[in-house]
Specification:
The chain has 13 helices and 16 strands. It has three domains: about 120 residues; about 80 residues, N-terminal domain of TfIIb, CATH 2.20.25; about 130 residues, Dna Topoisomerase Vi A Subunit, Chain: A, domain 2. The two termini are about 35 Å apart. It is α+β, with helices and mostly antiparallel strands. The strands form four sheets. The chain has a five-stranded antiparallel beta sheet. The chain has a five-stranded mixed beta sheet with strand order 13-12-14-15-16. Helix 3 crosses helix 4. A hairpin with a 4-residue loop joins strand 6 and strand 7. Bound molecules: zinc ion.
Length: about 350
């Protein structure tokens, strides 16, 4: 085996190595430029979702520079140290940093390191645990303020009454809006959102958190997946999950393919967070298909949209097999979800999933 010291080890890392290591350390996003790879500032931010893309890795000198709080240069070893210290994790420099970066190759600087006893690296445990987010639960009795009433709006779009019952969809008579309860992985109520039906309400957005007696029942959408509590056993069974943007697409999927075959969850936005991917891995997903709403009305916008989906998949491809639905045959209109044009259209789109 080639002899190496720390400097040579740092210099030997490829761009792919850097992306893998910094992603495993917690950066849930990166951007490529000609001379740098830009990551989230995980050097001083515990939670990467709140961090800015201001941690630059310069390809030329193989050093990081944090342009916000840290404001200085450091190498990959130092980034590991800062991350561990920030999270209050006790680490051993050789086992938890050097061996992780060198993929287990022993390094000259540590020739005298006595490795007599078994040592299990904190890195592996750390990687599995990552960020733990507890979203406060809210009492289910709050839903008693609403009745069960399948609206003609959703029935006519193809969502069955049975599906609405299975997902505990309600209706607000006073507000003329559809009520959508959101549950966490374990089935506790954590948020209530609604779909407005009156034109004047829709102006500020079709979907909003519900207000009851002055309290807004919102929750951080990036830390949950709509529908997962109900479909996680199916995801385990089929080892696969389909991710859509909106709650309605989950309900359409359920209506087309049945409750016992439903493997569809919604991010309730148009981005996919690492935390959400981890929730799917926890449920047993080995393959994930992104089925986001169609975007791009010009060639330029279309390729931007394609690249966006491709980038999301690349980001998680080292932990899970990723693919995405891209409407090459023009079966959808702009802003359509892949579920919006019926079961057959979805199956046709799904057949042409682009696997990474
Ligand atoms: Zn920093």
């Amino acid at each position: 085996m080639k002899k190496m010291d720390l400097k040579k080890l740092a210099d030997s890392l490829t761009e792919e190595d850097i992306i893998r290591l910094v992603t495993e350390l917690g950066s849930d996003e990166y951007k490529m430029t000609n001379d740098a790879i830009i990551f989230k500032t995980i050097c001083h931010n515990i939670d990467p979702t709140n961090a800015k893309l201001k941690l630059y890795y310069y390809k030329k000198n193989k050093k990081f520079h944090c342009y916000t709080d840290c404001g200085d240069n450091f190498n990959i070893f130092e980034l590991f140290k800062r991350r561990y210290q920030l999270l209050g994790i006790k680490y051993n420099f050789y086992n938890d940093i050097v061996l992780k970066i060198s993929k287990g190759i022993r390094i000259d600087d540590f020739n005298n390191f006595s490795n007599g006893e078994e040592y299990s690296s904190v890195y592996e445990k750390y990687k599995q645990n990552e960020i733990k987010v507890e979203i406060p639960t809210i009492p289910k009795s709050l839903l008693n303020a609403f009745i069960f009433y399948p609206t003609t709006e959703w029935l006519s779009e193809g969502i069955t009454k049975e599906t609405m019952e299975q997902f505990d969809i309600r209706y607000s008579i006073s507000g003329n809006k559809i009520i959508i309860p959101h549950y966490n992985y374990d089935g506790d109520l954590i948020g209530i959102r609604c779909r407005f039906l009156n034109d004047e309400d829709i102006e500020n957005g079709k979907y909003m958190p519900v207000q009851i007696e002055g309290v807004t029942y919102s929750h951080p959408l990036g830390y949950n997946l709509y529908g997962l509590n109900l479909v996680k056993d199916n995801i385990k069974k089929y080892k696969m999950a389909i991710i859509v943007e909106g709650e309605k697409s989950v309900l359409l999927y359920n209506s087309y393919f049945g409750f016992s075959n439903n493997i569809c969850v919604a991010v309730c936005g148009s981005s996919l967070h690492r935390y959400q991917v981890n929730l799917l891995l926890k449920a047993g997903a080995e393959r994930i298909v992104i089925a986001f709403d169609k975007e791009g009305d010009s060639w330029k916008e279309k390729s931007k949209y394609y690249n966006k989906l491709n980038e999301i998949c690349q980001r998680y491809n080292n932990i899970c097999q990723m693919g995405f639905i891209y409407d090459t045959k023009n079966l959808l209109s702009l802003k359509d979800s892949p579920l919006d044009r019926g079961k057959d259209t979805f199956l046709e789109l799904y057949k042409n999933t682009i696997w990474i």
